[in-house]
Amino acid sequence: MEDSLARLLRGVYESGEAHDLKTTDRRRRMLNITPDTGLFLSILVRATGARRVLEIGTSNGYSTIWIAEALRQRGGKVVSVEVSPEKEELASKNIGASGLSNLVDLHQGDARSFLRTLSLHSFDLVFMDAERTEYLDYWGEVDRALKPGGVLVVDNAVEPKPEELVDFFARVNESGRYLGQVLHVGKGEFLAVKLETT
Would the pTM of this model clear 0.90, i.e. be above it? Predict the structure, then answer.
């Protein structure tokens, strides 16, 4: 990674952390992934050869930049949806500063409505980092959009409130279409591959 991009990422992360210390309103907080989770996503995108990535929950664009940078060499696109207009505007600014805007499609709005517009098997990797209590509502469309052999990654699998994800993880595992495991990276990442037989 170029030094200038590493500095930008560090600045975006630190700005998000400072912002979160000043507000108790969860929906206004940035709640960025940890830097080691960013590196994990970068490695995963490269290792799987993913070219089409869906991100649910853009926040200030920190994780989006990590993913886009990993896509830069092979081409591809990260499609990211964010419900907050303020966060989407900030993400657009940060992604523009990264020089990776051509690899990112930002969408502002409700994830449920957006997910319904996606084509069958249109993504190689899906990263979920939004309101955890809404994931069960997203699941049917996420499953439809992820191609067989594709990878699902869910942030905050270990903390702060893993109980909010118990039913969602059970739904994924009980579908018989996924092989998944919680990894102790950052605040916990649930990693699952969609089986080719689906």
Answer: yes
